[in-house]
User: What shape does this take?
Amino acid sequence: MKDIKPLFGLPVIVAALGYFVDIYDLLLFSIVRIPSLQSMGVAPEALLDEGEFLLQVQMTGLLVGGLIWGIMGDKRGRLSVLFGSILLYSLANIANGFATTVDQYAILRFVAGIGLAGELGAGITLVSEVLPTRLRGYGTALVATVGLFGAVLANFVAKHFDWQTTYFIGGGLGLLLLITRASVFESGLFMKVKEATVERGNFFMLFTNSARLKRFVGCILIGLPIWYVIGILITFSPEFARALGINGDIVAGDAVMYSYLALAIGDFGSGFISQMVKSRKKIVLIFIFLTLGAIIFYLFLPIKTVVFFYIACGILGFAIGYWALFVTIAAEQFGTNLRSTVATTVPNFIRGTVVPITLGFKYLRGEFGIIYGALIVGIITIIIAIIALRSIDETFSRDMNYLEED
Assistant: This one.
């Protein structure tokens, strides 16, 4: 038991709780999209288009925030990001509960997106640096698994409160979490680098070396199928259900909940198996192929019942359950002076790809219909992810105490 005691230390627990609140707030829009827009007077036929627009705005905020918090994490420390990001998105979500127009909604989702961008990358960076190599994969999987249950809480709250109150609760949870952060210690590896003369948090260093740039881009693109599934297939599940002729009403919040419950199981499983087989890349490849099969199953559902549709959402969630591995790989690919920059920008850049993915989907569904348009986009993301996986290093046993130098 002593061997795994660090897994239950304060840094891991606080990072997991932070990601829990992060996921609650990140997915809340997907869950309350329809009632919130309806309350603002958006016509039924415009719900999909307005929903796509607001999702793109939120993801653009994540893209911007990924750069801000990632660089700050390497320059000022991992804890500065954990404090600053949660404060920003908590206040933005409380303000979001007072929004009365789509324009106000958009501004606040952008600001919240900036805040949400810092949580996962800083948490994974801190955990990967404070845990020994033999426990690193388990630690990051634990953070992701606990965090993903935030989607379950978001759906539960949305079922029992109006959409404004759900945002107030999310903001309040974030502010409460700030109290737990007070006793968390900074990464020892960062403190050592802080005393050195090496440049820290220089985002442009990723572009001054071709091998480094190749690894960075590769880390981003292996996660492309994950946010295609979440941003398209799950977020717009009611529209897909209608196109598939499902016999009954599909609630977006339930689709999110079932997919994220399964995603939590997949994340824990992929992290555990990667530790057993001593490889990150092999497990990611397996899950990418599982995602392809799950996409096809979802889009060409053989049984048109509500229960079976939610089962398909769960299968999708499990298949994309390499999210924790994806972020862990990013953290392990780069030295301590760039680790936070990469670990924070990579997941948010991939979240930001929801913008071009939704634009591509919008065009293709006009040409081929919603089902085949989604299929084409999905297959493209799978192909890109497989190619990208070949461009990154296997990092399972890598010592994290090293630097990136020009």
In short: The chain is about 75% helix and 0% strand. The radius of gyration is 20 Å. Residues 89 and 115 are 4 Å apart (CA to CA). The domain at 2-389 is CATH 1.20.1250.20 (Growth Hormone; Chain: A;).
